[in-house]
Description:
Elements: H1 2-37, H2 43-76, H3 80-105, H4 114-121
Helix pairs in contact: 1-2, 2-3
Amino acid sequence: MNDFKEFTTYVTYAIEAFGVVIILVGCTAATARLLQALRTQRMSDLYHEYRRNIGRSILLGLEFLIAGDVIRTVIVSHTLSDVAALALMVIVRTFLSFTLTLEIEGKLPWATDRSRDSNQAA
Length: 122
């Protein structure tokens, strides 16, 4: 059983590291795109596109970080304080995801995109 917990701990670290890498690579790629497009686009368009790209990379990275936290808490540690810490982290990260989605898309996460829905119906 200890071998399984140790293996799971390493897998959890790998998942969390992957989440951090996603955020770093996404931010680097967004910055590279911004610098490349500086000559051809208006600054206001670039700013909004840059924020959307950064937000998307943070959202995706947060998903992996939450997954790592859940795995660690469920498999590795079973104390009540660890579960409470997980609940708090999930609440904070979910709030961040919610606000980032609202910022990126300009609508609530559960709101449907009417223009997309009407295009699919046609």
